[in-house]
Amino acid sequence: MNNNCIFCKIIGNEISSFTLYEDDDFKVIMDISPAAKGHAVLMPKKHIANVFEVEEEVASKAFGVAVKVAKAMKEELKCDGLNILQNSGEAAGQTVFHFHIHLIPRFKNDSVQITWACKSYGEGEAESIAAAIRKRLAKFLLP
Ligand code: AMP
Ligand code: ZN
Fold it and tell me: In the chain, what are the domain boundaries?
């Protein structure tokens, strides 16, 4: 529990929310400023700031819950699609620094914008960035 964290307060029922799902480890609530009707956020009950701090086991379990909620949303809202989004760090648009996953129902021709201007790589750039990240990744793949 982080006393300055709004999601910790929601988890502790100090601040109210509309809950879609709750178990010992996770809570899924309706987002207060939805990008689309039904927009929900899924959070671990443990205060974890972002993707750089989350344990893989928590992340895997979280995605399992997200898949179930997504299927329920599709059936109930009859949405045509759904964005699963996770912002980590202010630069990425994170405003609540308690790890969470957005579930945003999407409809054909809706006006929701989750988009970016496409960039391109210079000669050999993609290959060298891939090689550099691959090298870093090796340490995280150790058992
Ligand atoms: P992010 O920008 O990825 O950190 O997303 C934070 C999300 O939390 C935003 O979509 C907010 O609308 C949502 N949010 C903030 N406060 C509350 C609250 N009290 N209840 C529900 N959702 C909230
Ligand atoms: Zn928190």
Answer: 6-110
Atom 20, ligand 1: residue with shortest CA distance: 32
Q: pLDDT at position 70, please?
A: 98
Q: Tens digit of pLDDT for each residue in 35-45?
A: 999 999 999 99
pLDDT tens for residues 82-93?
Answer: 999 999 999 999
How far is the C-alpha of 57 from the C-alpha of 65, rounded, in Å? Answer: 13
98 is catalytic: no
In CATH, the architecture of 6-110 is 2-Layer Sandwich (3.30)
What CA–CA distance (Å, rounded) separates 107 from 83?
Answer: 11
**31 CB less than 6 Å from ligand 1?**
yes
